[in-house]
From TrEMBL:
Keywords: Hydrolase
GO molecular function: hydrolase activity
Record keyword Protease present: no
Domain Nudix hydrolase: 11-154
Tagged with keyword Nucleotide-binding: no
PROSITE patterns: NUDIX, NUDIX_BOX
InterPro entries per the UniProt record, alphabetical: NUDIX_hydrolase-like_dom_sf, NUDIX_hydrolase_CS, NUDIX_hydrolase_dom, WH-like_DNA-bd_sf, WH_DNA-bd_sf, WHD_NrtR
Pfam families associated with the record: NUDIX, WHD_NrtR
Protein name, entry field: NUDIX domain-containing protein
């Protein structure tokens, strides 16, 4: 039997890519970075990078998240990460032509977090910014809302972003993950605007209030109020202990 010879096999790499979603100014936004090196130098892309030889996929995704956003991933086993961002594996992408350098398989991850500050570029990126998902996936529009035009996202990142957005849209129907976009204490109105931004629809305020406050374990009153929305004081809530919503919050048909 001949010994194993690594050089007999073509180069092969594994990367992690991050679909980092947040709600800014009532719009669903994703983090993008401008590539500073070939391939696709100068193009916008999702943050990510190659998995190091001494780390598993979850560790690589958490490292890239910290490097690109300064956020720590929420770890259910660690009380210190209670306020960390929600991080979950999304899907694996392995088209042989997706990276012109060599055969690269990407394990994409979805990150949901509250309104975040302006990002700082790290690693080999020459820029980083939040961009409207509607603009990113509408390539003809580019980044027109903020006056900056761009071609399509690098690699197959438009497909990965679209898959991540659809995962977020579906998961907030039957789980409590919409609260991951909110601060620790929030109003029902603020939560409603999260649903509206992620789904891209307008919701009836009264029906929404009735549904979310009537769903067992979804919201817990914090005991406080706020006037940050203007008008009369609004009651503040925290995320309850429920992870699955029963009944689910079904998105309207459009």
């Amino acid at each position: 039997m001949s010994p194993y010879d690594p050089s007999a096999f073509p180069p092969f790499g594994v990367t992690v890519d991050l679909v980092v979603l947040t709600v800014r100014r009532h719009a669903l936004c994703a983090l993008v970075v401008r590539r500073g090196e070939p391939p696709f130098q100068g193009r916008w892309a999702l943050p990510g990078g190659f998995v190091r030889g001494d780390e598993d996929l979850a560790a690589a995704a958490a490292r890239e998240l910290a490097e690109e956003t300064g956020l720590c991933a929420h770890d259910p086993a660690s009380p210190a990460s209670a306020n960390g961002a929600h991080l979950e594996q999304l899907a694996t992408y392995g088209d042989p032509q997706r990276d012109p350098r060599m055969r690269v398989v990407s394990v994409a991850h979805l990150v949901l977090a509250p309104d975040l500050p302006a990002p700082k570029a790290g690693g080999d990126a020459h820029g980083a910014r939040w961009a409207s998902v509607a603009d990113l996936l509408g390539q003809e529009a580019g980044f027109g809302r903020e006056g900056e035009q761009s071609g399509p996202l690098a690699f197959d990142h438009a497909r990965i972003l679209a898959d991540g957005v659809e995962r977020a849209r579906s998961k907030i129907e039957y789980s409590s993950l919409a609260t991951a976009f909110c601060p620790p204490e929030f109003t029902v109105g603020e939560l409603r605007r999260v649903y509206e931004a992620v789904w891209g629809v307008a919701l009836d305020p009264r029906n929404f209030h009735r549904k979310v406050t009537g769903t067992p374990g979804f919201l817990v009153p914090s005991g406080g109020t706020t006037t940050r929305q203007g008008g009369r004081p609004a009651q503040l809530f925290r995320a309850g202990g429920a992870t699955v919503l029963n009944p689910p919050m079904l998105r309207p048909e459009v």
